[in-house]
């Protein structure tokens, strides 16, 4: 099927070492894809020659486009900027360091043509990453799988294809703290995966340190779960029950075995333990409400319509 446009979105931050190879691989890929292609590079405030290189390329080759951010906003913001600029019927998100091999895009597009709106690439093997990175990453996905009500697929990075319908839903989410791959899982639609072998970086070195990764993980947890808020509620309830029992015990002690007790100890203990229990409990209750306010403040759409049939005849011709 032709007449379709496929957009590629690649965030770029100081990747001058890989760009020539990347461009060559992208050109190969474009030749193999039976569709109109635009490749959007989002320059996330690079301080090396990436910007000059890419803007030159965008001037000379109509398949390539260049978006420059005003400073380094981070990969999540850069991807969002690219997704907003994309005009394709489907958009493929990809890292610029060739860890996501471009030829896998052919499989993604094939699945899209079968009718899936979100096709993510699942890494079955990861090269060139440290054990620590693999272990922390696996722990993180386990944790978020437990505490979040939506399923964020395992072993899946940002490398994926998103159909226009799912993309528009994503773009309608105005939240400030963006965890793009979580949000793209949240929008739903028919989702599927294709396996791939994640390669080592072609050149240069990772832009992420553990501080940046921890920040991303924290933002993901808070955006997709209010479990941290609820913890206070449960801890508070547990402490209150224990404090109540302890209070009864201390009162009994004071009544029946008064002679071996320090004056005032019983009353102090009862008051302190009871109050701290109540305190935590109320903090937890407040937490639940703050959680609600937080959910409201995010102003996410309440639902997303996947398809419409038979409403507007003019629109029907656009249906695939
Ligand atoms: N990146 C970005 N802004 C940043 C950091 C990274 O746009 O602040 C880009 C980077 O150029 C690459 C992608 O995001 O295309 C993934 O970054 P990296 O390869 O450093 O991460 P890793 O693969 O180690 O998780
Ligand atoms: Mg990388």
UniProtKB/TrEMBL annotation:
Positions of transmembrane segments: 231-257, 269-290
CDD domains named in the record: DPM1_like_bac (cd04187)
Domain of life of the source: Bacteria
InterPro entries: Glyco_trans_2-like (IPR001173), Glycosyltransferase_2 (IPR050256), Nucleotide-diphossugar_trans (IPR029044)
SUPFAM superfamilies: Nucleotide-diphospho-sugar transferases
Pfam family, one: Glycos_transf_2
Domain spans labelled Glycosyltransferase 2-like: 7-168
Primary localization class, coarse: membrane
Membrane topology: Multi-pass membrane protein
Annotated localization: Membrane
Alphabetically ordered keywords of this record: Glycosyltransferase, Membrane, Transferase, Transmembrane, Transmembrane helix
Keyword Metal-binding: no
UniProt entry tagged with the keyword Signal: no
Protein name: Glycosyltransferase family 2 protein
């Amino acid at each position: 099927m032709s007449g379709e446009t496929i957009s590629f979105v690649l965030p770029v931050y100081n990747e001058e070492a890989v760009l020539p190879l990347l461009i060559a691989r992208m050109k190969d890929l474009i030749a193999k894809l039976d569709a109109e292609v635009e490749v959007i590079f989002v320059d996330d405030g690079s301080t090396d020659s990436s910007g000059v290189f890419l803007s030159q390329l965008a001037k000379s080759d109509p398949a390539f486009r260049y978006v420059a951010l005003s400073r380094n906003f981070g990969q999540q913001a850069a991807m969002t900027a690219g997704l907003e600029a994309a005009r394709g019927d489907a958009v493929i998100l990809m890292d610029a360091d060739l860890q996501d091999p471009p030829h896998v895009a052919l499989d993604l597009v094939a699945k899209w043509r079968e009718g899936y709106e979100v096709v993510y690439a699942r890494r079955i093997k990861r090269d060139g990453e440290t054990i620590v990175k693999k272990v922390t990453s696996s722990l993180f996905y386990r944790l978020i799988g437990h505490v979040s009500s939506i399923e964020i697929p395992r072993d899946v990075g940002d490398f994926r294809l998103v159909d226009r319908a799912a993309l528009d839903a994503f773009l309608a989410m105005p939240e400030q703290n963006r965890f793009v791959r979580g949000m793209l899982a949240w929008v739903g639609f028919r989702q599927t995966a294709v396996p791939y072998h994640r390669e080592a970086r072609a050149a240069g070195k990772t832009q992420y340190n553990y501080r940046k990764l921890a920040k991303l993980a924290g933002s993901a947890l808070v955006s997709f779960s209010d479990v941290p808020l609820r913890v206070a509620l449960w801890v508070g309830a547990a402490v209150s029950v224990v404090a109540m029992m302890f209070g009864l015990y201390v009162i009994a002690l004071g009544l029946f075995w008064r002679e071996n007790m320090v004056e005032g100890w019983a009353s102090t203990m009862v008051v302190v333990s009871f109050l701290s229990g109540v305190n935590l409990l109320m903090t937890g209750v407040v937490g639940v409400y703050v959680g609600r306010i937080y959910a409201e403040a995010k102003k996410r759409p309440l639902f997303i319509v996947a398809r419409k049939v038979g409403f507007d005849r003019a629109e029907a011709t656009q249906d695939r």
